[in-house]
Design a protein that fits this description.
Elements: H1 16-25, H2 29-41, H3 45-56, E1 59-60, H4 61-68, H5 72-84, E2 88-93, E3 96-101, H6 104-117
Antiparallel strand pairs: 1-3, 2-3
Helix pairs in contact: 4-5
């Protein structure tokens, strides 16, 4: 797409008061980077499926793998990413590791995404 194909202002008239106000409210570069990294985690449909499964119930890797018709190894890899991003937590119960949503924010993020695509 050429620059001429994008709608833009005909005059270069910067509204400095607006720009200044926005820049004061802008999160730090580190926060923006961390936010972008978080949203990358949501960019994989397998991870989204795992989160949806965990919406319904806490589950072990075996149950998640069976639910999604995938290998335990593939599920474990995705769970590691979700855990590193603080989206899921886990605990040991005997010989099983049980995974669960880290908090209600995870459900809110997914719900907002579903609402957005269904508008």
């Amino acid at each position: 797409m050429a620059l001429n194909d994008v709608e833009h202002c005909e005059l270069h008239d910067v509204h400095l008061d607006l720009v200044s106000r926005i820049n004061k409210e802008m999160p730090s570069e580190d926060e923006l980077y961390d936010l972008a990294e978080l949203f990358k985690v949501f960019g994989d449909s397998t991870r989204i499926k795992i989160l949806f499964a965990l919406f319904e119930s806490e589950m072990c890797v075996c149950d998640i793998a069976e639910t999604l018709k995938m290998t335990q190894s593939a599920i474990s890899h995705q769970l590691k990413i979700l855990k590193q991003s603080k989206l899921v937590g886990n605990r040991r119960e005997g010989k099983s590791i049980i995974y669960y949503l880290a908090d209600d924010h995870v459900r809110t993020i997914i719900d907002q995404g579903i609402n957005h695509i269904n508008e």
